[in-house]
């Protein structure tokens, strides 16, 4: 079985248990293949937690869920030094961040000092406690969730924290047909308590898939197109005065890197060895929406970041 077939089998496994959220499943695999993290925004009950749990069942890895609450401390995430009376020494006790897949559930429920504990881990795959630096596993992915409806008692993620996420996915409600299937699946699972025997995807296969993704061809013209889109989020003056009015802060060069890697991963999942403009346009929303800050004037006019990105994609010509 080829690497693509094994990844396809994992995808089918996830879609079997996550119904009506194909976009979320695809973005989860894109983040996994592009070696990045994802922020998922959606109302409760839309299979956000279930999605990464099902992924962990089909992957050779360790998984841990961290429930973010206002009283959480940074040490509850990263770990801390524990004093041992036997030899009068301090030894590091690793926290839940030292797993392959980590679910930061309702990340905006915790204060900034806890959110900042994730910065080094997400950016550099390591945690520093005191004078000691501890490396995280080679396979390391953080999926954070937040509820866009309930804002009371939450702490909005600062720009530096949002920028660490490769992509931000917005999850909506499933359609009627999907809801019927969800209900049938849930009732079936309630009756059948046996655990399915799943052939797990090895980490070696995943790393080989990542290498194939990096080898996907990105033509110089499309690289220029991709960069022009990102640069236009900072200075859209060439594309209309309305965009200038709406724009406050644009995306950093991290966005260009993320968009290139995500477009390659998306093309690879579509069984292609090259990126086309549609790949870039499809992933642009997920890569840019959490990196752009709109002006007060845009908010007053009811303009969202997705609308801003849509206008950019309509006006920036393909090279």
Structural domains: how many: 2
Distance between the termini: 38 Å
Largest sheet: 5 strands, parallel
CATH superfamily of the largest domain: P-loop containing nucleotide triphosphate hydrolases
CATH classification class of the largest domain: Alpha Beta
> Helix-strand pattern, N to C?
HHEHEHEEEHHEEEHEHHHHEHHEHH
Write down how many β-strands occur, each being a DSSP E stretch of 2 or more residues.
11
What is the name of the CATH topology of the largest domain?
Answer: Rossmann fold
**Contiguous uncertain segments of 5+ residues:** none
Q: Can you give the mean pLDDT? A: 92
With strands numbered from the N-terminus, the spatial order across the biggest sheet is 2-5-8-1-9
CATH architecture of the largest domain: 3-Layer(aba) Sandwich
> What is the number of helical segments per DSSP (H or I, 4+ residues)?
15
Which value, in Å, is the CA radius of gyration?
Answer: 21 Å
Structural class category:
alpha/beta
What fraction of the residues are assigned to beta strands by DSSP?
15-25%
- What does the overall shape look like? globular
Fraction of residues in H or I helices: 40-55%
């Amino acid at each position: 079985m080829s690497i693509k077939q094994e990844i396809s089998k994992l995808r089918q496994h996830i879609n079997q248990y996550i119904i009506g959220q194909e976009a979320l499943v695809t973005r989860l695999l894109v983040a996994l293949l592009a070696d990045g993290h994802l922020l998922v925004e959606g109302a409760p009950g839309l299979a956000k937690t279930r999605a990464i749990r099902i992924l962990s069942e089909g992957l050779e890895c360790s998984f841990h869920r961290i429930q973010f609450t206002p009283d959480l401390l940074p040490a509850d995430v990263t770990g801390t030094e524990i004093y041992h009376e036997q030899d009068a020494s301090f030894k590091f006790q690793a926290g839940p961040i030292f797993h392959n897949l980590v679910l930061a559930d309702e990340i905006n429920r915790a204060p900034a000092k806890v959110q900042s504990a994730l910065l080094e881990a997400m950016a550099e795959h390591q945690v520093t406690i005191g004078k000691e630096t501890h490396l995280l596993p080679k396979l390391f992915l953080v999926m954070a969730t937040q509820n866009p409806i309930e804002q009371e008692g939450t702490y909005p993620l600062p720009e530096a924290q949002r920028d660490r996420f490769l992509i931000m996915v917005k999850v909506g409600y499933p359609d009627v047909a999907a809801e019927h299937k969800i209900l049938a699946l849930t009732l079936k699972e309630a009756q059948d308590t046996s655990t399915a025997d799943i052939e797990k995807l090895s980490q070696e296969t995943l790393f080989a898939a990542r290498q194939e993704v990096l080898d996907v061809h990105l033509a110089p013209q499309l690289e220029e197109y991709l960069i022009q889109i990102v640069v236009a989020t900072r200075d859209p003056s060439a594309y209309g005065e309305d965009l200038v009015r709406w724009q406050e802060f644009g995306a950093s060069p991290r966005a260009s890197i993320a968009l290139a890697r995500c477009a390659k991963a998306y093309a690879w999942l579509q069984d292609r060895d090259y990126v086309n403009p549609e790949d870039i346009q499809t992933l642009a929303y997920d890569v840019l929406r959490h990196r752009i800050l709109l002006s007060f004037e845009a908010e007053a006019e009811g303009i969202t970041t997705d609308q801003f990105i849509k206008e950019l994609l309509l006006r920036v010509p393909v090279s």
